[in-house]
Specification:
Length: about 110
């Protein structure tokens, strides 16, 4: 049983890595949040969707490197990765977020039964 759990865990980890690699951060977050407030080679900055401040762009998404798809809001301290963002933004649980991301952004990926 322990070996089966490790295999499932590894498969899920590989799926999440493939999902994050398949989805372009700039396109994804722009489609979800609208206009970019500031863009650099490594980050894009938006108004945060998780609190009411509409004047100060504090929601930063890393778009390259090891922390690609990581986000943080320096005002409300919301933080996480692509999957957590999709969960919170669309009010989904973990498996719903994974399935929704695959269906809408990475349909070439398959979920093992």
């Amino acid at each position: 049983m322990h070996t089966k759990y490790n295999t499932i865990h590894a498969d899920l980890r590989d799926l999440i890595i493939a999902l994050k690699c398949s989805i372009d951060p700039h396109s994804y977050y722009t489609s979800q949040l609208g206009s970019v407030c500031k863009c650099t080679n490594h980050q894009i900055i938006f108004l945060c969707p998780f609190h009411d401040d509409r004047k100060h762009p504090n929601f930063t998404v890393t778009i390259t490197g090891q922390y690609r798809h990581s986000f943080i809001c320096f005002a409300c301290d919301a933080k996480g990765d692509l999957i957590l963002f999709h969960q919170k933004f669309h009010n989904l649980n973990f498996s719903e977020a994974i399935n929704d991301l695959i269906s809408n952004y990475a349909s070439h990926l398959q979920i093992a039964n």
